[in-house]
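Q: A reviewer asked whether we had any structural model of the full assembly, not just the individual parts. We don't, so I'm hoping you can provide one. Inputs are below.
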Amino acid sequence: MSRDRALANDPCPIARAVDVVGDRWTLHILKHANVGLTRFDQFKRELGIADNILSARLTRLVDRGLLVKTPYSGTGRTRQEYRLTQAGADLLPVLHALATWGESHTVGEGQLGPIEFVHTDCGTALGADNNCRTCGRRVACEEESWVRPWLPQVVTPVAAPMKVVS
Amino acid sequence: MSRDRALANDPCPIARAVDVVGDRWTLHILKHANVGLTRFDQFKRELGIADNILSARLTRLVDRGLLVKTPYSGTGRTRQEYRLTQAGADLLPVLHALATWGESHTVGEGQLGPIEFVHTDCGTALGADNNCRTCGRRVACEEESWVRPWLPQVVTPVAAPMKVVS
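A: Here is a predicted structure for the entire assembly that you could use as a starting point for your response.
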């Protein structure tokens, strides 16, 4: 069995998760998908990477069930977009944890401060386990918004996962 | 500015965190460092990767301040080991989140069940934000142990970070 194949079947769930998402572009794609990007050209513009690299990552995320390809009609011919599945949306706590670590241990340009993860309905900053202390309950991913101080006029709702009928 | 350089300075703390740890071998190394591995040969045996790949990852983790190289005396000549810094230890919530996701969305061999993250002193499973409901307080990383059902006789304490005097 190859090392990669072994990690995909490892008894350790961390090893198996890393096998799926332990890649910089994959994590960047999932971050942007969580705040609403769905189209190849949007990801390409945001990440600034080559078409073949982006295409390989998106295809793998579809194959592994974190994104689903679905048609949309714009101007002209029908195109495909990439929507989060429940498995993709469930990575949100990983993104939260990376945000906390990045805020504590790295320095960005301009020192603009942390991302605030808030309950969309009431604006309260979410606590551990996504609890909203104003509403006294745990908030689902699609009830959360991100306030990013480098985008000062924007409160971005987290994308709702697409229900996949199997 | 190169794309990589831009990500290291991105205003988004998630992008900056991914720039440091968004790599499969880096995440595997940090997982094993958190449960006590410190030596090149230990990481090599556990990960099964080539010396040059492991060496490059360890060097980068030292350069980025997540591991620190420190001498130890065994039999024969003095060697170097790699110990977690506070920045490396602070990645524990990322590993917790990956464990939860991996347990929900991937399947390993034998279906042996999740890792239990417990308070070492009392054995209570830790809740969100590492709260121990038995002791009524938040537990630091070095007070936590991992119970992994595929290692049934072992309760592994999480490594304490090394204090680095700068």
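A: Points you may want to mention in the reply: Chain A touches chain B through 59 residues (CB under 8 Å). The radius of gyration of chain A is 17 Å.
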